[in-house]
Design goal:
The chain is elongated. The chain has two domains: 181 residues, Jelly Rolls, CATH 2.60.120; 108 residues, Orthogonal Bundle (Arc Repressor Mutant, subunit A), CATH 1.10.10. Strand 4 and strand 5 form a beta hairpin. It has 301 residues and is an alpha+beta fold. The protein is built from twelve helices and eleven strands. A six-stranded mixed β-sheet has the order 9-1-10-3-6-11.
């Protein structure tokens, strides 16, 4: 069985861009620009604040981790009265993964993930802009173990360290998403949380494993051991759309990625995704993305 979250990741071209360590002492404040990416930061020691647009300062302590989705501009500081300096220009990020300023009373480690391709919103839309995982959270211990390994790699400079830090970044992202679902509860975590529901998660897995099957609500309900009405209501509550809407959207996201990568033509996609004709497939594609697949094919070229 295909794991749906891994399946989604395969369509969004998510890449660990880089991981960095930041050591700082004295009184300080640094601002960072918005970035169309996912970003995580963990406080290894010391304490500081994060200030997001339109929000009051949020206190962070050693062991805390946070994730920014479609990262907005933000400020990291230990002194709220200091004028923030440019965190990108101040450090020589181009030549080192470790930045130091005025001491090492506070140490942070962070990484960013660039999301390419038209399906990026599949992941971004499922996450709030700011996810905080406190040191006291049960899942924080797992994150700390991975962070310790990542920190060792950043400082060692041994062969393969770039590849190691990128792979560790991927692992951290999945661990952070798991921690987020555990913290807020599956009921409040959208379709990512729904993956952990024994009934709805099974239905999503079925759809991802057999996208070309001609699914009905009755069959999905029966395969998950629920009545039709209870299944339909539960699915919409957790995922945010009706079951067959999800089936259509997932098929079209797979189709769009196949067109972008030039892995198939419209006729073969229509057949593989369960459509009896190119026109039926094309109408579904246009409902989801606002243009016909052949037009998308031309634009992708």
């Amino acid at each position: 069985m295909i794991d749906p979250l891994s399946d989604v990741f395969s369509l969004v071209d998510i890449e660990s861009a880089r991981c960095t360590r930041f050591e700082v002492g004295g009184q300080w404040a640094f601002r960072f620009p918005p970035k169309p990416a996912l970003k995580f930061v963990a406080v290894l020691k010391g304490a500081c604040w994060i200030i997001l647009p339109g929000e009051p300062p949020f206190a962070l302590t050693a062991g805390d981790t946070f994730l920014l989705a479609n990262a907005p501009a933000y400020v990291i500081a230990n002194d709220l009265q200091s004028e923030p300096e440019d965190g990108i220009a101040f450090f020589d990020w181009e030549h080192s993964n470790i930045a130091r300023h005025g001491g090492d009373e506070t140490a942070l480690i962070g990484g960013s993930f660039v999301i390419a391709g038209g399906n990026a919103q599949l992941l971004i839309d499922a996450l709030p802009p700011f996810i905080h995982i406190p040191a006291s959270d049960r899942a924080a211990g797992i994150l700390r173990a991975t962070l310790a390994t990542l920190d060792d790699e950043l400082g060692a400079g041994e062969m393969g360290s770039t590849l190691m830090t990128r792979r560790m970044g991927d692992i951290l992202l999945v661990q952070a998403l798991r921690a987020y679902v555990s913290r807020v509860g599956p009921e409040n975590a959208g379709w990512i949380g729904a993956l952990g529901n024994p009934h709805i998660g099974k239905a999503i897995s079925l759809v991802h494993n057999e996208p070309g099957h001609r699914w009905t609500v009755n069959e999905l309900a029966g395969r998950t051991g629920m009545s039709r009405s209870a299944f339909a209501e539960r699915f919409r509550t957790l995922v945010g759309v009706a079951p067959l809407d999800y089936v259509t959207r997932w098929r079209m996201h797979r189709a769009r990625e196949a067109l972008r990568r030039k892995e198939a033509n419209v006729a073969s996609l229509a057949a593989s995704l369960g459509y009896s004709s190119e026109s039926a497939f094309g109408n579904a594609f246009k409902r989801v993305f606002g243009r016909a697949p052949k037009r998308y094919w031309q634009d992708a070229g």
